[in-house]
Amino acid sequence: MAETATQSPVIAPVSSGYRRYALWVLLIIYTLNFLDRQVVNILAEPIKRDLGLADWQLGMMTGLAFAIFYTVLGIPIARLAERKNRPRIIAASILAWSAFTVLCGFAQNVWQLIAARIGVGVGEAGCTPPAHSLITDYVPKEKRASAIAFYSIGTPLGTLAGMAMGGLIADAYGWRAAFMVAGAPGVLFAIIAAFTLVEPRRQLAADLAGRAAHQVGFGAALAVLMTKKTFWLVAFAASIKAFVGYGQAPFIASYFFRNHGADVAALAAQFGLKSAGFLGLALGLIGGTAGVIGAWLGGQLADKLGARDLRAYVTVPAIASLVTLPFYIAAVSLDSVTAAIGILTIPILLGTLWYGPVYATAQSIVDPSMRATASAVLLFVINLIGLGLGPVAVGALSDLFAGPMGLGEGQGVRWALIVSTMFGLVAFALFWAARKTIREDMVG
């Protein structure tokens, strides 16, 4: 097999103190990654009004425009990360996505905004595959799911920051200013990544030169992955989770504005805020806190239960996918804003449990020389289906229910959220099926 024919890199151990530092830096970088990616969600309604967009165009702008280049470029950048300095690749990526986030604030029409979002996707493609590969080299195998889950906490933290900061700044200075503020911190952390994150491959230049003749090509790496049934079951299960999560994210604030606008305004006034600022802060804090707990808990459960039975890596997200459904449907069916936001904490928490187990499984299923590639292929599937199609599909459903089916904008978005959440049943079935193959597919 191609796995065994390749000379794996010699990995220099890092101290536990440096490991903690590096994980914190990567967490902050990933938080910025998601802040810049998700800030658009709380800005969707003012952008829609300002630029005169339909919901499907919002879905295109928030999802597909970003996802196409993000997913496609992730694979060649990951191949580069198998050979080159991973911290410098991450640093260059931060600079690119931060600059394009700022440019979103200068867009004068939907096509300019889509072009800038494509640029954000191009930059962010260079973050997670090399980061996952670095983390796997930094930490011992028995702590891999927990470490990757810690990194993945950047997803809810970035979403929290994007929703809260975006809503408050949009209320005070407009949606354009929110994009500009979101992109600003990237320069600092690009410098930190380039000069303080170490490349743990020992004697990097000599090691890579020696490996060049034995480098596994993409076709060979993909051939190895094709033999791993677990990888594909987990990849498509996670893509369904992403389809639901990314698809609903741009419309949850719109749901509250359209169905509970007066109540949101009244609650905001009690805190001396405007509606967007209050809702962004509320959804951000609830979603961020619950998401952080869920991501951390998923990694902990997978590592602890997986030490006794590897099937725990897919059992945990399978059960979470099933339990999520009734709570989410209840949240978007209630008349009370406070009760709805409160109940949303449960599906948000359960919806992030899969991060650590899924990404750790992908890293453990191949030889070290193919880990960045495995991560990129996994992200390709997850984001092409989830981020690329999810927002467009939910937006199209909302337009269908609102217009041709005559339910109006408020009920249209509500039923789009309800219908889309039922796809969680498919994710449950795929995760559960992976229980049959995961023990034989794990390599280390």
UniProtKB/TrEMBL annotation:
Membrane topology: Multi-pass membrane protein
One function term, GO molecular function aspect: transmembrane transporter activity
Localization terms from the record: Membrane
GO CC term (a single one): membrane
Domain of life (superkingdom): Bacteria
Keyword NAD (UniProt): no
Keyword Membrane: yes
Main location: membrane
SUPFAM superfamilies on file: MFS general substrate transporter
InterPro entries: MFS, MFS_dom, MFS_spinster-like, MFS_trans_sf
Keywords: Membrane, Transmembrane, Transmembrane helix, Transport
Residue span(s) of domain Major facilitator superfamily (MFS) profile: 22-439
Protein name as annotated: MFS transporter
